[in-house]
Amino acid sequence: MGTCMFAHRGLSAQYPENTLAAFQAAADAGADGIELDVQLSKDLQAVVIHDHSLERTTTGTGFVKEYELQQLKEFDAGSWFAPPFANETIPALADVLTWAKGNQLLLNIELKGQVWERSQLKEAVLPLVFEHELQERVIFSSFDHRLIYEIQKQEPQLETAILVAAALHEPERYLRDIGVRGYHFRVPFLLQEEAVRLQQHGVQLRPYTVNDPYWVEMFVKWGCAGLFTDDPVMALQLRKKYEG
């Protein structure tokens, strides 16, 4: 397959992000996987939304953590993007995992809770993945590297990755210390020579968020394990062109 193309928050260039409509559109477009963001509701349920506050992508106000799951589901999570999507709601992670049983997509679940919510977030998310028997298709990532370390220690069979928004010094040593294979780096904080060295150490490189065709083609040529893009249709076309 080469470089796996992950639809960032679903097919978010054309659909409201982190909704089932965006995820289904990504599947229909031929994406290899989807990326989604997960945090906790007031009643400690795993919900799929990027921002900690509700205003940008829903009709709600205030913070996600101030509402229980059923209250969050009452908000419109689509009309901000375009009126035809007014019926879209904030999905529970369980809703997305149930949907994913009907396809073969990889699922990159970015964990976005506060650092003091680590244990609660793990307890809300990990059992769901095993209940839906999707552990072979899930990658957990987070900017909270301590959380990723704890998940890796608890469930070493799961694939995990750290998210970074800077150029790290000797990231291969850091990854080895954590015991994690996935390195999800922000474009453009990596040189090709550094990428080669990381790949020689067995690191899975997946840059984000790659929407420029120049960068897509470059990362495919580098042999990155995957990349995250708002426009997987474009990315898939470029991969096909390069890989034949």
Automatic annotation (TrEMBL):
Which InterPro entries does the entry link to? GP_PDE_dom, PLC-like_Pdiesterase_TIM-brl
Q: Where is the signal peptide?
A: none
Q: Where is the GP-PDE domain?
A: 3-239
Q: Which GO terms describe its molecular function?
A: phosphoric diester hydrolase activity
Q: Which domain of life is it from?
A: Bacteria
Q: Which PANTHER family match?
A: GLYCEROPHOSPHODIESTER PHOSPHODIESTERASE, CYTOPLASMIC (PTHR46211:SF1), GLYCEROPHOSPHORYL DIESTER PHOSPHODIESTERASE (PTHR46211)
- Native source species: Halalkalibacter oceani
What is this protein identified as? Glycerophosphodiester phosphodiesterase
Q: Extract the Pfam families matched here.
A: GDPD
Task: Provide the GO biological process annotations.
Answer: lipid metabolic process
